[in-house]
Amino acid sequence: MKAPFNGSDKRRLPRARSEQSWLAPPEQWPDIFKARAEALAQPVELTEAEEYLEIVAFMLAYETYGVETAWVREICPLKELTPLPCTPAFVSGIVNVRGQVLSVIDIKKFFGLPEQGLTDLNKIIILANDNMEFGILADTVADIKRIPLNKIQSGLSTLNGIRESYLKGITAEHLVILDALKLLTDTGIVVHEEVR
Q1: What's the pTM value of the predicted model, to 2 decimals?
Q2: Could you give the CA distance from residue 115 to residue 17 in angstroms, rounded to a whole number?
């Protein structure tokens, strides 16, 4: 049984015929190769690329979250977290990443999610823009995904409170996409307290 003919077969047909060209007499080869070149020179119709978000997916309290890779500088293991006194509970501390000292935010505390404690599996996702840079704690980093924009819903009624205000969207698979730019520009995250 033959497969149905589709547009891509148009390009294969001359090639298949030309593969048999070596069986033809040599004097016919120039005509065969010219026909093949003309067939291959025909413009190919390309479908418009689907718009998508590329995100880093990570786990927080048994839920899957994501942030756009455009705002992710890097992902690194959690090592030598130094607590900071006199900071809000959501500030876990600071870490040294290749000589740069960065604050680390515990998104679970910030969003009021259940805590699990820190393990060797925890990762720091470093978010950055021109004016701000800090790390957010993730229980584990799952994957980098490309999600078509038309598959992202605006939100769910079950996501309320502070999480809702940082929500970019949610997928049918219940992947919650956070607005990383909003996190980076939120003055409520910046701590300007002096210890006396």
Answers
A1: 0.67
A2: 66
